[in-house]
Design a protein that fits this description.
The chain has 371 residues and is mostly beta strands. The protein is built from 3 helices and 15 strands. The protein has one domain (36-370): Maltoporin, Chain A (Beta Barrel), CATH 2.40.170. Helices cover 5% and strands 60% of the residues. The protein has a 15-stranded antiparallel sheet that branches.
Amino acid sequence: MNTLGGALSLQTKSGRDNQGGALEASVGSWGRKTGSAEFGGVSQDGSVDYFVAANSFREDGWRDHSPTDVRQLFAKVGWQNETSKLDLSYTGADNDMIGNGLTPSEMLRTLGRKTILTRPDQTRNTLSFLNLTGAHWFNSDVMLSGNVYYRSSNTRTLNGDGNDDVDDQEYQADCTGSNEAEDECGGALNRSRARKTGYGFTTQLSFNQDLMAYKNQFIVGLGYDHSKTRFSQFTEYGNLTDSRGVTGVGLFNEEDEQVKLTGKTKTWSVFATDTLSLSELWHLTLSARYNHTKVDNLDHITPADDEETLTGKHSFNRINPAIGLNFTPTKDLTVYGSYNEGSRAPTSIELGCANLLYLANCLTPWRVTHH
C-alpha cells in the first residue's frame, strides 16, 4: 500500500526452523565493536516455538566526531496445531547515528579527509513494533489468515549548522543575542522531532478450488490502517566552537523555521486476486485493490483561517488493477508478462509542506504509476 511499484515480503526466523543458538562478535578500525546473539527452540509437545535475537554495533567513525551506536532486538513466539497457527513478534530498536555532512574541498586538502564542516548531524531513532499473525485452515481448500499490529517510533534530529542569515557587520564571535541573534550569531542548532504511532489489521480468505474444471486460486480480503504523526521543528541560534560544533545561546527563530504539526491518516482497503491455470503451462492472474485514505492535519502554530496554515483535511480514493500471464514450459524456466497500476496517498508531512511556502521542498503529493 505504501509503494510505487514494488513490495518486499519477508519471512522472519522462528524457533521451529532455527533451533539452537549462535554468537558472533568482531572488532575493527575506528573503534568498531559488533556483537549479535540468537536462540530458538520448540516445546516438548511441539506446539510452541520461540526465538530471540539481539544485535549491537558501535564505532567512532572515520571522520571527526562521527560515532554511531545501533541496538536492535527481535523476539517471536508461535503456537500451532493441525489446523491453526499463531505468531506474535516484537521488534525494538534504539539507534543513535551521526553522519556529519559535506565538507568543502578546500578544507579537505588543508585539514585532511577526517575533517568536518559543522557538527553534529545526529539522528536518534527508537522503535517498538508488535505484530500478531494467524492462519486457520477450514479444510484443505479454504484458509483464513491475517495480522494485527501496533507500531510506535520516535525520530529526533539535531543539526549544528552555520547561520546563513548572519550579517557580516553585526557578527560576534561570542554572540549573546543582545540585539538581533539572527544577525549576530554565526551558528544555528536545527532540531526536529517526529513521534509516530500506528495500528491496523489485514484479513483475507483463500480458496483453492477448481473453476470450470481448471485449477484456480481466489483470494479476497480487507484491511484498516491508522497512524498519527506529531512533527515539530525549531532553530536555536548559537556560537561556533573550535571543534566545529555549535553552542546554543537560548534564543530561537520564531518565524520561518518553526513547525508544529499533528497529522492523522486512516485507510480502508479491499482487495481481491485470482489465478487461473489455463493449462499446466499457462497461468492467468487478475487482481485489484481499492484504497480510501483520509489525512487530517492540524497546525499548532498558524490558525486554520490563515492562508499560510498547514491545517487541512484531505481524501484520496483509487482502484489499482493488475493483470499477469505466466508461461512455465519446464520446472527450471518461467516467462511472464504483467501490467499493474500502483498509487499511494501522501503523508501528513508531505501535505503539510505542500503549502506554497514549502513547495520547493516537497514531494509530489499524489502519485500513480503504471508498469
